[in-house]
Automatic annotation (TrEMBL):
Keywords: Transferase. Its EC number is 2.8.3.19. PANTHER family: SUCCINATE--HYDROXYMETHYLGLUTARATE COA-TRANSFERASE. The keyword Transferase applies. This is Acetyl-CoA:oxalate CoA-transferase. GO terms for molecular function: CoA-transferase activity. It is an enzyme of class 2 (transferase).
Length: 296
């Protein structure tokens, strides 16, 4: 697996075709910014660059249509997930047919795949203005924090009305349908804000749970780590990293033994073993290290 830009890996003689010419038949994964060829193949790409260039910032624009960067390294993370899926398929192919495969993944295509529906809606349907699909829908201030509240149907809307003691919503013609509620969202949200500010987040959670209202408190990272369901599911694990200390990690999101992962290897820790497995002598490995081509 490598993520050099295409000209670099060829210059190093570590590209898939060169390895094949030396008798190897690997499952080989290449991750790049824009792919192996084309007008952008040699362009440098980081997560932020890709979020802008793939339209992801535009898709994530706010209600004033200002493009916004997604607050996590989404391009990098999603590319890793797609690469793992494709690599697994290639390994299954090798197990079944006995041949290696060159898996090529690039950040640009991954970011486009993530927002396929949004791009289609804008290009085909001309849906440019960014707004919620329903009202009420948003993040609102409670007496002691923030809470997300939304209604996706008339029934959901009536549940909010009942939970917060807002009976006039039921008869107000401006709020009779979702389309009308979107037209009068400012007035609707003003009513909702006034009602929410009379309660703490905990009080609202109890009310909304009782009336099956779609809601969630807006949590900080520390809140999420101590989330009751995270505690129940062992969502987070701690590992000890030499020369650093305890590291908090989110566990794999599928059922498995709840064991802390091993510490990450130090840079170069396994280089000598890997090169020896590839047939290099100890003298050759030492020579590479002395010339600072590899680290040990």
């Amino acid at each position: 697996m490598q993520n050099f830009r295409p000209p670099v890996v060829k210059r190093l003689g570590l590209d898939y075709e060169t390895l094949r010419s030396h008798g190897f038949d690997p499952v080989y994964v290449s991750i790049s910014g824009y792919g192996a060829d084309g007008p952008y193949a040699d362009h440098p790409a980081t997560d932020s660059v890709m979020q802008a260039d793939s339209g992801l910032m535009h898709t994530n624009r706010d209600e004033q249509n200002m493009p916004q960067r997604v607050g996590v390294l989404l391009a990098d993370i999603a590319t890793g997930v797609y690469a793992a899926q494709a690599c697994t398929a290639a390994l299954l192919h090798r197990f079944r047919f006995g041949t290696g495969t060159h898996v090529e993944i690039n950040l640009f295509n991954v970011c486009c795949a993530l927002q396929s529906t949004a791009i289609s809606e804008e290009v085909i349907a001309g849906q440019i203005d960014k707004q919620a699909a329903s009202a009420p829908n948003g993040v609102f201030e409670a007496a002691d924090g923030k809470i997300a509240v939304l209604a996706l149907s008339n029934d959901h809307f009536l549940r909010i009305s009942e939970a917060l003691g807002l009976p006039h919503w039921r008869t107000d013609p401006r709020f009779a349908t979702n389309e009308l509620r979107l037209q009068h969202k400012a007035e609707l949200h003003a009513d909702l804000v006034a009602a929410l500010r009379r309660h703490t987040v905990a009080e609202l959670e109890a009310l909304f749970q009782q009336h099956s209202v779609l809601h969630a408190r807006v949590r900080t990272a520390n809140d999420v780590v101590h989330h009751p369901q995270a505690q129940h599911l062992s969502t987070f694990l701690s590992m000890k990293q030499p020369d650093f200390g305890d590291v908090l990690l989110a566990a794999t999101p599928w059922p498995r033994a709840h064991l802390a992962p091993p510490a990450a290897p130090r840079a170069g820790e396994h280089s000598a073993r890997i090169l020896a497995d590839l047939g290099l002598s100890s003298h050759e490995i030492e020579s590479l290290a002395e010339r600072r081509i590899i680290g040990l």
